[in-house]
């Protein structure tokens, strides 16, 4: 791939303080990429004294000598209008303003005079204000503008002897934050940089060799990118220097409510909550006044609801759960945005166990595949990550995250998901139920692409130990789960999760430590971290897609699942499937323990196909699959001839070793006659394997599968006791 070079052809850029150091570097770099540059410099000294046109002229000459377009401006930034006027007169527009000019008047705080203070504030803060205001209307008319404010580490962290400078520098960040909000709708973006580079201003505070090695050309590329039309960053703060760029943001501790209903708030309560107030574990990252305020509104209702004084605005992880349905129901969570591309689609497919071992999976794992697609059940991902955070600040819902389990999930797709895009989701607390042993929170989420409704999710969260608050037990709003038919399943598919399945799945956005952190899991009462419910859900959904929809995600309509027991990473999942028209009922069992883990589940498809154990009949690699499918069919026929009332279901699977094996589930429960005698009723889950040449013989009709079985060429694996008994039974029948 060759990335297109970033061009500034046709753009007009003003750089203040461009006679030397960083400003000069910016001016040269913009001009080199085609911009017309106004090189502004008063030509004074670093303390704000003196005046000369030489500095700006020299840079203009340099630019012109290289064939670039530039004009000099010698006015002070305090004459902001004049600077912008030069740009408009000479080049007819102004697209970019880089507020870079600055001086120093370092003094320890008590020795800082009024003049020291005012001068610094006038040049840095007022100067940037005046220049930017002069450009604003023009940028608004053009519907394009890029503004850079120059802050400093001295402002962000403080620095001895720079009280005037550091306050002005951080003042610029505040100015930029507001301009970013006011300019957004006119495509005027304002970002702040805190550069570290050797310059006239830093040579007084840094050793000479450091000044020499921290070159201005290690800063300019960030400024150019932030000012380019392709860059959508707005309101960001970046530290930059030495060839490194990093972004900064605010972090807020979960804090502590230190007020109780109908009681005065006291300094002692603040003292007693101090550790929690200053504890940044699970900190939040508010990025707007609205987000910041939300927590306060939440505190008001939590204190009003009474009894929740232990909980922080964002419900500390170990705080006890507290549910107030009348406050919580109907609450709308902040709208969330999810931007994704092929990377997230592929990561999700890997997270739910897809593998290049199965050629059918390639269309979900390789963005260059002609049918590259996003798995249909990826529809649970866009809303999920954002709401994990949003959920913890809903008034009336104080959830102890160590006790929160995913109870049920419903997903309905209205059109196939794209492989990239930006989706927005809106979530409402639809209902809160009191199940005695826990509380169930129903979260309805609509996800949109622009105005178009793409999918609907209902997340059902089971908060263990939070029941008993006297709420209702059932809800008309809950999407019902449905029992599986009583007959034997039409097809069963087995798949192994890996030891790292949860570590992989969480990269799709559910960062809940319950799935990776042993001590967090222990607090929740688990011996080890458990698998995400939505991960086993993903396995089951793709089993249906494979068996009944030829892996075609556009055939998927809806899915409902109840998580009845946790799955541990590394366990094998066995999905039993029953076709009832276009609805496929499913039940998932952990093969190693025989525990049912997903129940009451179903997938609705657009036109379900018949269960087809046969893999696609093409490609050399699939030859053995074909053979297994064929032998399975013949075994089934032979089996039903031999043991008339045994229900035999054949499926095929990829085993742990990567081999394809025939797989025959025999349900003895329903058979009549002599099989009901004796200790043999029950479920046998048996796998038959056979040497390749024998398969070929079976397929070619040279070897009867019954004979293969009784001659020992066909091996039995699975529940050993039961399979041995089964062998005996089958042999008994054969004798008959
Ligand atoms: C924003 C959204 C983000 C979403 C992501 C969520 C964060 C994720 O990171 C978290 C996870 O993925 S956790 C992993 C997946 N989930 C699990 O493993 C839970 C497995 N289920 C259980 O352990 C039990 O069913 C258990 C513990 C849930 C219930 O067991 P018991 O307490 O023994 O309940 P029981 O006595 O059987 O039944 C009592 C009543 O509760 C109903 N119920 C049972 N299981 C339920 C479940 N899974 N979901 C909903 N309701 C459930 C029962 O029906 C019964 O109610 P009623 O008497 O009215 O029928």
UniProtKB/TrEMBL annotation:
It holds the Pfam family SCP2. The keyword Cell division does not apply. GO terms for biological process: embryonic organ development; fatty acid beta-oxidation; neuron development. InterPro entries: HotDog_dom_sf, KR_dom, MaoC-like_dom, MFE-2_N, NAD(P)-bd_dom_sf, Peroxisomal_Beta-Oxidation, Sc_DH/Rdtase_CS, SCP2_sterol-bd_dom. GO terms for cellular component: peroxisome. Keywords: Fatty acid metabolism, Isomerase, Lipid metabolism, Lyase, NAD, Oxidoreductase, Peroxisome. CDD domains: HDE_HSD (cd03448), hydroxyacyl-CoA-like_DH_SDR_c-like (cd05353). PROSITE patterns: ADH_SHORT. It is found in: Peroxisome. Residues 11-185 form the Ketoreductase domain. Gene3D superfamilies: 1.10.287.4290, Hotdog Thioesterase (3.10.129.10), NAD(P)-binding Rossmann-like Domain (3.40.50.720), SCP2 sterol-binding domain (3.30.1050.10). Pathway: Lipid metabolism; fatty acid beta-oxidation. Signal peptide: none annotated. GO terms for molecular function: 3-hydroxyacyl-CoA dehydratase activity; isomerase activity; oxidoreductase activity. PANTHER family: DEHYDROGENASES, SHORT CHAIN (PTHR45024), SCP2 DOMAIN-CONTAINING PROTEIN (PTHR45024:SF2). Belongs to the short-chain dehydrogenases/reductases (SDR) family. This is Peroxisomal multifunctional enzyme type 2. It comes from Tetraodon nigroviridis.
């Amino acid at each position: 791939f060759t990335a297109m070079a970033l061009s500034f052809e046709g753009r007009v850029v003003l750089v203040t303080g461009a006679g030397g150091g960083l400003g000069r570097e910016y001016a040269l770099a913009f001009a080199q990429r085609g911009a017309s540059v106004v090189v502004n410099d008063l030509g004074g000294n670093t303390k704000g004294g003196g005046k000369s046109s030489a500095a700006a002229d020299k840079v203009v000459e340099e630019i012109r000598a290289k064939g670039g377009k530039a004009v000099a401006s010698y006015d002070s930034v305090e004459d902001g209008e004049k600077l912008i006027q030069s740009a408009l007169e000479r080049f007819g527009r102004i697209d970019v303003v880089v507020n870079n000019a600055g001086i120093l008047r370092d003094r320890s705080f008590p020795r800082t005079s009024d003049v020291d203070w005012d001068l610094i504030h006038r040049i840095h803060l007022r100067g940037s204000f005046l220049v930017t205001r002069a450009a604003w209307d023009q940028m608004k008319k053009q519907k394009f503008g890029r503004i850079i404010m120059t802050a400093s580490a001295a402002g962000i962290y403080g620095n001895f002897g720079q009280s005037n400078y550091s306050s002005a520098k951080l003042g610029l960040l505040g100015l930029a934050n507001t301009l970013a909000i006011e300019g957004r709708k006119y495509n005027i973006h304002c970002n702040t940089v805190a550069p570290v580079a050797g310059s006239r201003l830093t040579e007084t505070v840094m050793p000479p060799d450091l000044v020499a090695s921290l070159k201005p050309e290690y800063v300019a590329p960030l400024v150019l990118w932030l000012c380019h039309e392709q860059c959508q960053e707005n309101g960001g703060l970046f530290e930059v220097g030495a060839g490194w760029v990093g972004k900064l943001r605010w972090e807020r501790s979960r804090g502590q409510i230190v007020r109780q209903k109908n009681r005065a708030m006291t300094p002692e309560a603040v003292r007693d909550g101090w550790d929690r107030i200053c504890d940044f574990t699970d900190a939040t990252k508010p990025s707007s006044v609205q987000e910041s305020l939300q927590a306060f509104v939440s505190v008001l209702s939590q204190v009003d609801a009474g009894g929740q004084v232990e909980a922080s605005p964002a419900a500390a992880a170990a705080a006890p759960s507290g549910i107030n349905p009348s406050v919580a129901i109907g609450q709308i969570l902040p709208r969330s945005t999810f931007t994704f591309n092929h990377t997230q689609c592929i990561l999700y497919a890997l997270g739910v166990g897809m593998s290049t071992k199965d050629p059918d999976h390639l269309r979900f794992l390789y963005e260059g595949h002609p049918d590259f697609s996003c798995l249909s059940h990826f529809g649970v991902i866009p809303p999920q990550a954002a709401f994990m955070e949003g959920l913890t600040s809903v008034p009336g819902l104080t959830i102890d995250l160590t006790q929160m389990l995913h109870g049920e999930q419903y997903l309905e797709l209205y059109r196939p998901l794209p492989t990239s895009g930006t989706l927005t989701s809106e979530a409402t607390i639809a209902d809160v139920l009191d199940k005695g042993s826990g509380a169930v929170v129903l979260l309805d989420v609509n996800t949109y692409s622009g105005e178009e409704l793409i999918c609907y999710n209902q997340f059902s969260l089971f908060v263990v130990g939070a029941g008993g608050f006297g709420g209702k037990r059932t809800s008309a709003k809950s999407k019902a789960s449905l029992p599986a038919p009583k007959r034997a399943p039409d097809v069963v598919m087995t798949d192994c999760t890996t030891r790292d399945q949860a570590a992989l799945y969480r990269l799709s956005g559910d960062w809940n430590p319950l799935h990776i952190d042993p001590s967090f899991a222990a607090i929740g009462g688990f011996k080890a971290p458990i698998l995400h419910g939505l991960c086993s859900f993903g396995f089951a959904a793709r089993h249906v897609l494979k068996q009944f929809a030829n892996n075609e995600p556009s055939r998927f309509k809806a899915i409902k699942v109840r998580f009845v027991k946790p799955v541990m990473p590394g366990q094998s999942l066995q999905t039993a499937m029953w076709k009832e028209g276009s609805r496929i009922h499913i039940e998932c069992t952990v093969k190693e323990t025989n525990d049912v883990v997903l129940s009451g589940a179903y997938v609705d498809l657009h036109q379900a196909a018949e269960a087809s154990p046969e893999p696609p009949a093409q490609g050399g690699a699939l030859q053995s699959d074909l053979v297994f499918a064929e032998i399975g069919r013949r075994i089934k026929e032979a089996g039903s001839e031999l043991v008339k009332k045994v229900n035999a279901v054949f499926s095929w699977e990829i085993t742990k070793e990567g081999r394809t094996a025939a797989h025959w589930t025999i349900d003895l429960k329903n058979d009549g006659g002599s099989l009901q005698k004796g200790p043999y009723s029950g479920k046998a889950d048996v796998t038959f394997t056979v040497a390749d040449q024998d398969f070929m013989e079976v397929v070619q009709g040279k070897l009867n599968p019954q004979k293969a079985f009784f001659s020992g060429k066909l091996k039995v694996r699975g529940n050993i006791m039961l399979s041995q008994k089964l062998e005996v039974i089958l042999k008994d029948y054969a004798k008959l």
